[in-house]
Protein 1
Amino acid sequence: MTEKKTLVNSWNEWDPLKHVIVGRADGTMVTAPEPAIARDWPKHGFPLGTYGPLPKEMEAKANEQLDNFAKLLESRGIRVDRPTPMDFSQKVQTPDWHQDSMFGCMPPRDVLLTVGNEILEATMSQRSRWHEYLCYRPLLEQYFKEDPKFRWEAAPKPRLAESTYKDDYWNMWKKKSKEEKDQAIYNRDWVLTEKEPCFDAADIARAGKDLFVYHSSVTNRAGFDWLRRHFPDHRLHSIWFYETNPIHIDATFVLLRPGLALSNPVRKPLAPKMIEFFEKNGWEIVECAEPALDDYPPLSFCSKWLSMNTLMLDPKTVCVDAQEKKQMEQFDKLGFEVIPVPFIDVSAFGGGLHCATADVYRAGDCEEYFPKQVEGF
Ligand code: ABU
């Protein structure tokens, strides 16, 4: 029996899940060119500069897996809501720019950040995703009517004018040597300038009083600073990793349950004192298992590390992509009940099981999981 009454409340990544949004693949686009990103997939029909809808047969398979996942969650008593897709092939504009396509609404995690009784619409940092929040507005309006304590917030919409991006960034990136790319990683020299706050919601991992914010290619220092001021009762930690294409924390560093985090073996943490902070607070960090794939799935801007992009249903139960046998074995050894979910066909639409969901309600309160502080972190 699914719960009917709406309550918005979620403080972390693992408390018992009661209500969640699951995305839809309908109409998802390989997005038109824009300064924030460079899509170049000639082998799969989309060389640099081209754009268009993902093939309909791929979309049908992705929607089938998303629908089955939604049914699975409902069968476990979890209420599932779905966004309202738009015509993502339409051209969009603001007074500062026009963009020849939008993206889609498969990954609600990228747009919506739930902290306690608040859902915050992220700024986003790509023009093709500037209007994506509209797909969730019917649900947010409903929650606002049904839960008198629900705090509905939206971060300031960024201008995303030319000055938000570094000039000719992707062209310059292609010309860099390995040493220059390494230097850029250590300098966190990503496409965004610091002109205005930008962040994607999927760059934030929640652990009660502590929020970990990935300084990535879609979240800048100003975005972190905006979040820090917006959540004055939390401790916010800026973290970053060794990765040439950093986007979203949930295939890099995943909080599984109090005291246990899953870490990407290749994307090493670079933020000073981060490991010390976790260890001092008694957290174990384990490296994730070898992913099933060797490379990015076709037409996917995500990586093979979607293997670690998992959804916790409670501190003992984890949903994992069914192809990720080694990851499932590892979770089994760590004492989790593992639920295999066929999900590979969804990856090209914007991610894995964590990306495809956004918490509305997890039963639990704001707890302290990191009582010991480390100066400088
Ligand atoms: N949002 C999904 C994670 C992207 C990646 O690191 O592959």
Protein 2
Amino acid sequence: MVKTIEWVDGKVRMLDQTLLPREVKYIDCTDYGMVAEAIKKLRIRGAPAIGIAAAMGIALGAQEIRANDFTGFLNELETVFNTLLATRPTAVNIQWAVERIRKFLLERKAEPVDKLKALLIEEGNKVLQEDIEINRAIGKWGARFIREGDTVITHCNAGSLATGGYGTATGPIRVAVEQGKNIQVIADETRPVLQGCRLTAWELMQDNIPVTLITDNTAGALLRKGEINLAIVGTDRTVANGDVANKIGTYSLAVLCRENNVPFYVAAPLSSIDFSIPTGELIPIEERGSEEVTHIFDCNIAPEGVKVRNLAFDVTPAKYITGIITEKGVFRPEDLHKLNEKGVDLDKFMLKANNEDRH
Ligand code: MRU
């Protein structure tokens, strides 16, 4: 499995995903500004991966701080937090990482600044390792819903490259394959940036998982023909009522799945669930530059000067979602909030992989 990001010799090393699949090249970020720039330019992308990059970027930023008292140190770190938070608005994982690190530091106020700097490096590595374990747990829960002979459609890239490793939406697929199930994956190409084509298809092929690439507008025809049994996608931010923001085109796929009676699942680590937002309309949606639509790599394919809208994400209402696969189990979107309540017996609300629950 390809490595997305790691901390190496005081630097954050990441695979430059803008070059894939033509070139496999790692870049070393030597300061937090480079990490922020890499997130903005999509060199690293995918909600969990940018959360990890943010945690490691904070550790890098911390090393440059001169203040040697806690208050001065945290004040200077706020600039690092804000720079990272300003990169991409939709995925909640950057905010999640900043809040985790701020809390981590506030609980260690009495420690000398030099020790805190070392601890932040450890914490960045911990965020990475935990993410891989979480994806394996998502894989284990989700694989129960994949049956021998199934064809699973996915949108965008919610694989190893979008995470610390293993993937969220690809977690159940990987576990099903490890269990010896004979399954197929359909990858939507995912215009405009083509994450499905350039990243998902590529990474599954690296691991010999059978994958077929389609254009986004082919999904409806294959669903109607009965050639797809299940959809599993990732998420950038899932909110309290179970509405899901994910890569543009996810909503259309979910509606098509409902129309064709195909179950639609979302793989969502708790780090991408934002219980502070009640409904999907309140999720900030990133709009990106027009060149992502008018160009493919360096080639202009659109009329000069054409007006463009480039929404990077859309919101799929909870009513189209069969189940949300988390590291704690699989839940109906309307039961998701139970994960945020104390003393709830989660077993009572978990979906079982029987015929009734699968749809
Ligand atoms: O713009 P991107 O490539 O960062 O968008 C990524 C997605 O929409 C993924 O599906 C999402 O982050 C889930 S990743 C496990």
